[in-house]
Amino acid sequence: MAIIRYTGIYNADGGVWGETRYVIGHLLGTTACSLCDITHSPIRRKPEWDAMVTRLGVAFDVRHRNETTAAETEFAATTGLPVVLAHHDDGSITAILSDAELEAVRGSVGAFESALRAAASSPERTVD
Fold it and tell me: Which PROSITE patterns does the UniProt entry name for this protein (predicted)?
């Protein structure tokens, strides 16, 4: 099964109020999202992230937890958030990187890319 796109789901809500709550919670140390740390600096999206997505050669969408599809919400309920999902050419979806794996890269886009490529090359890779 070839991967045709990825979806990363943040452990945060989108919209003005959702993002404001996240920023305040993050500053107070009460809210965290390891995927947010990878994709964004404190001010904006990291340019390294955009370059990495271009190198992947397949689409990589990021969504807030309140912006997911029904299938993505179902995965998030079983894997926890944040999570990275792989969408395959046969229509199936698998969870490819868990929060623990995202946390392990410590906000590094380069380490994330390595972890993603390693996970994508593992046959039948899914996150429990």
Answer: PROKAR_LIPOPROTEIN
